[in-house]
Amino acid sequence: MPLEIIRNDITKMQVDVIVNAANTALQMGGGVCGAIFKAAGAAQLQQACDELGPIKTGEAVITGGFNLPAQYVIHTAGPVYKDGKHGEAELLRLCYINSLILAQQNGCKSIAFPLISSGIYGYPKAEALAIAVSTISSFLMNSDMTVFLVVFDKETFALSEKLPE
């Protein structure tokens, strides 16, 4: 199965690239972002990010993975959810599409995503999950990449089990 939703710690994933739900300044943050920075080596990863930032919401950039099992980290800035009427869904789609294209351009065969914008950025988890799955699935129609959507909490994993096959 080219798209698999799993409950795991993204920093432990044995894939070519993991995706960081970054802020536009590419500074170490909390949540998934903080965990990725700590696992990669915060100083090294911050130095690499400083050379690439800032980025716009929906854009994606790539750095080395440093101390992570993944060779690379793709950093993408998800939208802060307001009310769903300010282009949030399209910006979220762009995060996934731009990350997948960047992974493909760098020869990656496997990628692990967190559920972008669903933490402190407040995107409703069910909507964020639906956008992630539909966007990734569309991309995979023309790609052989293996994609993992890594969720950390039980609630989100339970939502993923309710998705149509």
Concise description?
The chain is α/β, with parallel strands linked by helices and 165 residues long. It contains five helices and six strands; from the N terminus they run E-E-H-H-E-E-H-E-H-E-H. It has one domain: Leucine Aminopeptidase, subunit E, domain 1.
Descriptive notes:
The protein is an alpha/beta fold. It has five helices and six strands. The protein has helices spanning 31-40, 42-50, 88-105, 125-140, 154-161, and strands spanning 3-7, 17-22, 60-64, 72-77, 110-113, 146-151. Strands 1-6-5-2-4-3 form a six-stranded mixed β-sheet, with helices on both faces. The longest helix is centred in the middle third of the chain and has 18 residues, at 88-105. It is globular, with a radius of gyration of 14 Å. The mean pLDDT is 93.
Question: Could you name the CATH homologous superfamily?
Answer: Leucine Aminopeptidase, subunit E, domain 1
Would you tell me the overall average pLDDT?
93
What portion of the residues fall into strands of 2 or more residues? 15-25%
Molecular shape = globular
End-to-end distance, in Å? Answer: 12 Å
Tell me the layout of helices and strands.
Layout: E1 3-7, E2 17-22, H1 31-40, H2 42-50, E3 60-64, E4 72-77, H3 88-105, E5 110-113, H4 125-140, E6 146-151, H5 154-161
Parallel strand pairs: 1-6, 2-4, 2-5, 5-6
Antiparallel strand pairs: 3-4
Helix pairs in contact: 1-2, 3-4
